[in-house]
C-alpha cells in the first residue's frame, strides 16, 4: 500500500500554482479595483509558474517512459518546480518575466535524462519542454479564436492575452540550439562526444546569454517578427498583450490602462 501511495505521488503535479491561478483569475474576472493590477500580477505569475510546473512534469514523465531511472526522476514528478533546478527553472524565469515581460523558460533538464537509453528518446525528453508551451498557447487562445473574449472583462482579456504570449515566447526561445536550452538538448545526443564535452562548461550560462542577446535591438526585432505572426494566427491581438503587460506592472506610477 505504501508503494502504491508513493507511485501515486509521483504522477501528480503540484496543485499550488493551480489554486493560485484559479483564485487570482476569478478576482481578475470580477474586477476588484483598486487591486486589479495586483490581481493581474498574481494571476499571470501563477499561470506562468503553473506552465513551468507542467513543463517539468512533461519532461520528467517523458524520461520515465523513455526508460530513465525512476529513483532519480520520481521526486521531480511530484512537484516539478521543486524537483527541478530552483535557480534555472524557477527563479530566473520569474525574474525574466518581471524584468522584460517575456516568457524565457528554464534550461536545466531533469535529473537522470542522460541515462535514458537511446538518442532518439533523449531528444524526445528535451522536446517535451517546448512542446508543453506549444500546446498550452493554442489551448489558452481558444476563447480568442472563438471571439468569446470580446465580451469578457477587459482586465481578464488583457491578462490572458499576456499569458498566451508568454507561452509562445517560451516555446520559441526554448527551441534555440543554445547549450543549456532544450533546443540544444534535442541535438546533443547526436553530436560527437568531443564536441559535447567542449559545450558542456558554458551550458549553465546559455539562458543568460539568450536573455542578454534579446537586449540587442536587431535580435529583439527579429524575435518579435516571429512571435507576433504566431499570436495573430492564434487570434490574440497585440494591443491586448500590450495592455496586459501594462496592468501586470501594477507598480508603475501612471499605468496606461485605467479601470
UniProtKB/TrEMBL annotation:
Regions that span the bilayer: 12-30, 36-54, 90-112, 124-142, 154-176, 205-224
Keyword Transmembrane: yes
Membrane topology: Multi-pass membrane protein
A cellular component term, taken from the record's GO annotations: plasma membrane
Any one GO molecular-function label of the UniProt entry: metallopeptidase activity
Example of a GO biological process term: proteolysis
Protein name: Site-2 protease family protein
Subcellular location: Cell membrane
Cofactors, names only: Zn(2+)
Record keywords, A-Z: Cell membrane, Hydrolase, Membrane, Metal-binding, Metalloprotease, Protease, Transmembrane, Transmembrane helix, Zinc
Database matches in InterPro entries: Metallopeptidase_M50B, Rip2-like
Family as reported in the entry's similarity comment: Belongs to the peptidase M50B family.
Main location, first listed in the record: membrane
Organism: Streptomyces tardus
Amino acid at each position: 500500500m505504501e508503494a502504491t501511495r508513493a507511485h501515486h505521488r509521483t504522477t501528480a503535479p503540484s496543485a499550488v500554482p493551480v489554486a493560485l491561478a484559479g483564485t487570482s483569475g476569478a478576482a481578475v474576472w470580477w474586477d476588484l479595483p483598486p487591486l486589479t493590477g495586483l490581481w493581474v500580477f498574481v494571476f499571470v505569475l501563477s499561470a506562468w509558474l503553473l506552465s513551468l510546473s507542467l513543463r517539468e512534469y512533461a519532461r520528467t514523465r517523458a524520461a520515465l517512459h523513455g526508460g530513465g531511472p525512476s529513483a532519480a526522476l520520481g521526486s521531480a514528478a511530484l512537484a516539478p518546480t521543486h524537483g527541478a533546478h530552483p535557480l534555472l527553472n524557477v527563479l530566473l524565469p520569474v525574474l525574466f518575466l518581471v524584468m522584460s515581460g517575456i516568457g524565457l523558460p528554464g534550461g536545466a533538464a531533469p535529473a537522470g535524462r542522460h541515462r535514458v537509453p537511446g538518442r532518439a528518446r533523449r531528444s524526445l525528453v528535451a522536446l517535451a519542454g517546448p512542446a508543453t508551451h506549444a500546446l498550452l498557447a493554442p489551448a489558452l487562445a481558444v476563447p480568442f479564436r472563438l471571439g468569446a473574449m470580446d465580451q469578457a472583462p477587459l482586465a481578464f482579456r488583457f491578462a490572458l492575452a499576456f499569458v498566451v504570449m508568454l507561452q509562445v515566447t517560451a516555446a520559441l526561445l526554448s527551441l534555440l540550439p543554445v547549450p543549456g536550452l532544450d533546443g540544444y538538448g534535442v541535438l546533443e545526443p547526436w553530436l560527437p562526444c568531443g564536441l559535447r564535452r567542449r559545450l558542456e562548461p558554458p551550458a549553465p550560462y546559455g539562458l543568460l546569454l539568450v536573455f542578454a542577446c534579446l537586449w540587442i535591438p536587431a535580435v529583439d526585432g527579429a524575435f518579435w517578427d516571429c512571435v507576433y505572426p504566431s499570436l495573430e494566427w492564434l487570434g490574440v491581438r497585440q494591443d491586448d498583450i500590450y495592455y496586459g503587460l501594462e496592468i501586470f506592472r501594477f507598480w508603475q506610477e501612471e499605468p496606461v490602462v485605467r479601470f
